[in-house]
Every structure is written in structure tokens, then in C-alpha cells.
Design a protein that fits this description.
Helix 13 (about 280-285) links the parallel strand 7 (about 270-275) and strand 8. A 7-stranded parallel sheet has the order 1-4-5-6-7-8-9. The protein contains 16 helices and 9 strands. Helices cover about 50% and strands about 10% of the residues. It binds coproporphyrinogen III. Coproporphyrinogen III binds near residues 39, 104, 150 and 213. The site of coproporphyrinogen III (CP3) has 21 residues, from strand 3.
């Protein structure tokens, strides 16, 4: 099992999420929620309106810090996640980006010849707002709460850049990768390097751990999964660990199915984020090698009642005897009632598994 923080080394050991990432089993397990800052909270809708639009919110540290802290005030969560977006990286590389109501992100589709025009030199300075957000949030958190920074993984970010919007099966990016393999490789390498440098700056600004979202890691064949997901992640993790060898890195290759095994073994990450399609018997096998995080279906959370309780209990019964960070298997959906979140946190925190 991993051993990032040598026993008793720092105050960091008050942080339950870090303890689990360090290989400890905690009962009850720590809990946070992907997309815990967002539209299901009335106070988020208010701050977003004040910002004018979503991107302004990401680029205004005082407001982004407020959005980060909102769920921490309402709920007894063990981690805060920086409020930002994975698409700030392509934006910083000079690609246009806007978020349209009910359509999600829109960008001009990237062509092979656009790749050498990506503005690597100025990218990190354009990403300075999140560093200030981190400093502001850090100043407000107690020493038991873990602050998580994040970026997208190269493949997921590339799918948005190439298609110009969200896609169901990533067909434009897959087609691009087969038609222009060299261009694809250099795009993924560029994203890996810039994203690693961006995460290194988040670490310097004060995050305790980082999560790398490969949210669209499904629909890839074996060869492509290796080339598009594993190799760029290896490159990114190596670059981060050269500077910060002990920083905990949670990898989240959503939808990777059986490839989760390879991903866990080869990328160098320290904990594994599981999506809700990962069967719990398989999750238990993965947990023998790495701490796991997940994997409640966010639709169960939206439904509440027995559906929610059953989903929670199944995860706790299967994974509660090993290092587990309780989380959703993907982001919370905007229509989720707040009382369901309270029900979930209560049930997880009252559950004790003593074996
Ligand atoms: O988790 C958090 O609370 C931190 C903030 C966060 C956001 N996006 C805020 C956000 C994080 C970690 C992300 C990551 C992100 N962004 C991912 C990976 C995780 C995932 O959910 O798969 C992806 C693929 C994106 C790209 C993105 N951003 C899409 C596709 C959309 C539109 C879909 C949607 O949910 O609206 C966004 C917008 C976005 N990012 C919102 C928020 C709160 C909603 C914007 C709004 O206020 O309207």
C-alpha cells in the first residue's frame, strides 16, 4: 500500500481523505461529492448570477472561493474541491471557449494545423486565477479538511477541443486520432505537460491532493486506451512527481471498465476514482492495490429514499473494510434535493464497520 505521508509527519494527518489515500481504512469513511459546488445549491445560482457567466465565475477568485466553500458550510464533508473547470486549460492555450445554457461548453473545433499554434508559453500565467482561489479557500478551511485541486486528463480535454463540444461517443476525437496519429500524440503530450505544470502550481498554492478527470475514458479500444489514456497520464504523473514525489494523485478514468486494472498499475496514480458502472466485486479487487473513491450513482442521490440507502449500503458493505473515500460515481445532478445529500452523509457517517 502507498505511504505518502510518513507516520506522524505533519498536521496533514488530521485529514481523513489523506489518511485513506495513505492506505488507512477509516470507519466511517471520509466523504465528498464530485461537482459538490454547483447548480443544485441556491447560493451557487446566486453567485453565478453575480459573476454574469460561468467563465467569469471561474476567473474571479473571490467568487470562485465562495463557490468552493458553499457546500462546506452546508454539509459535513471531508474535502473541498477547487471551483474551476477542466476546459480552462485549452482556453489558456488560446482556444476560444464559452458555456451556453443547456448546451454546455462550445469551442471552435481544433484542426491538425492548429496544434502548433497552441500558446504554451503564456498558458500558465493565464491560469493564475485558480491559484489565488486556492489561497483564499485554504485560509478558510480547518486542518481536518482536505483541499483537492484538479485538471482534466489529456484525452478528455482533447475530445472537447477536437469536437468543439460534448460528444456521446467521442467519435470526432477517435477519428482524428486514427487519421492524424502524430498530431494527436503531440496534442496529448502538450496537454499532459501544460496540465502537469498547472497542477504543480496548484500544489504550490496549497492544495493537499489532486484529481485528474478522464471523464470520457470509455468507447476506446485496447490499443487506443493505452495510447490516449495511459501513456499521457504516465507522462503527466511523472512530471508532477519529479517535483512533488509525495503528492496524492487520484485518477478517475470514467467508464474504463476492465482497463481500470491496467490504468491503476501503469499510470503511477495513488488512488483510483471509480465510476458507478464498476461492479463492487471488481472494485474490491482494485482496492487491494490502491485506495478507491466512489462510486454511488448520482441518480440514486437524486431519487433519495430506499434507492439511495441501498446504493450506499452496498458500497459500504463491499468496500468499507478497506481504504475508501465515499463519493459519487460522477458529478451530482442539478435537480438533486438538498435533503437527499443530508440523508446520504448521515447514513455514511453513522455507519461503522468493525472488522
Ligand atoms: O466538482 C466541483 O464542484 C468543482 C468544480 C468543477 C466543475 N467542473 C464546475 C462546473 C469540476 C471538477 C469540473 C470538471 C469538469 N468540467 C469535467 C470533469 C468531471 C465531469 O463532470 O465529467 C468536465 C467534463 C467538465 C466540462 C464541463 N463543464 C461540461 C461538460 C459542463 C457542462 C455540463 C454541466 O454540468 O453543466 C461544464 C460546466 C460546469 N462546470 C458547471 C459547473 C458547476 C455548470 C456551469 C453552470 O453553472 O451552468
Amino acid at each position: 500500500m502507498n505511504n505518502f505521508y510518513k507516520k506522524g509527519s505533519f498536521a496533514l494527518m488530521n485529514k481523513k481523505v489523506l489518511k485513506v489515500i495513505n492506505g488507512e481504512k477509516l470507519s466511517p469513511p471520509p466523504i465528498w461529492m464530485m461537482r459538490q459546488a454547483g447548480r443544485y445549491l441556491p447560493e451557487y445560482r446566486h453567485v453565478r448570477e453575480a459573476a454574469g457567466n460561468f467563465l467569469n465565475l471561474c476567473y474571479t477568485p473571490i467568487l470562485a472561493a465562495e463557490a468552493t466553500l458553499q457546500p462546506m458550510r452546508r454539509f459535513n464533508l471531508d474535502a473541498a474541491i477547487l471551483f474551476s473547470d477542466i476546459l480552462l486549460v485549452p482556453h489558456a492555450l488560446g482556444r476560444d471557449l464559452r458555456f451556453e445554457e443547456n448546451h454546455g461548453p462550445i469551442m471552435t473545433p481544433l484542426t491538425a494545423s492548429d496544434i502548433r499554434k497552441l500558446d504554451i508559453t503564456h498558458a500558465i500565467e493565464r491560469l493564475s486565477a485558480p491559484f489565488e482561489t486556492i489561497e483564499r479557500v485554504k485560509a478558510k478551511l480547518n486542518d481536518e479538511t482536505t483541499l483537492i485541486g484538479f485538471s482534466g486528463a489529456p484525452w478528455t480535454v482533447a475530445t472537447y477541443m477536437i469536437a468543439g463540444h460534448a460528444t456521446f461517443n467521442q467519435a470526432p476525437a477517435r477519428l482524428f486520432s486514427y487519421s492524424h496519429p502524430k498530431a494527436m500524440k503531440s496534442l496529448l503530450e502538450c496537454l499532459a505537460d501544460v496540465s502537469a505544470d498547472y497542477l504543480l502550481k496548484q500544489i504550490s498554492a496549497g492544495v493537499d491532493a489532486i484529481q485528474i478527470f478522464d471523464s470520457l475514458a470509455y468507447f476506446l479500444d485496447e490499443t487506443s486506451f493505452e495510447a490516449m489514456c495511459i501513456q499521457p497520464m504516465q507522462r503527466m504523473v511523472k512530471r508532477i512527481k519529479q517535483i512533488h514525489p509525495k503528492i496524492p494523485i487520484i485518477g478517475f478514468p470514467r467508464g474504463a471498465g476492465i482497463f481500470y486494472k491496467d490504468y491503476a498499475k501503469k499510470t503511477g496514480i495513488t488512488a483510483l476514482g471509480l465510476d458507478c458502472s464498476v461492479p463492487l466485486f471488481f472494485a474490491k479487487q482494485l482496492q487491494k492495490d490502491l485506495p478507491v473513491q466512489g462510486n454511488l450513482d448520482p441518480i440514486r442521490l437524486a431519487a433519495g429514499g430506499d434507492a439511495l440507502d441501498c446504493g450506499i449500503d452496498a458500497i459500504l458493505n463491499s468496500l468499507g473494510n478497506g481504504p475508501l473515500i465515499f463519493n459519487l460515481g460522477h458529478g451530482i445532478i442539478p435537480s438533486t434535493p438538498i435533503r437527499h445529500i443530508e440523508q446520504m452523509i448521515k447514513r455514511v457517517q453513522e455507519n461503522k464497520i468493525n472488522t
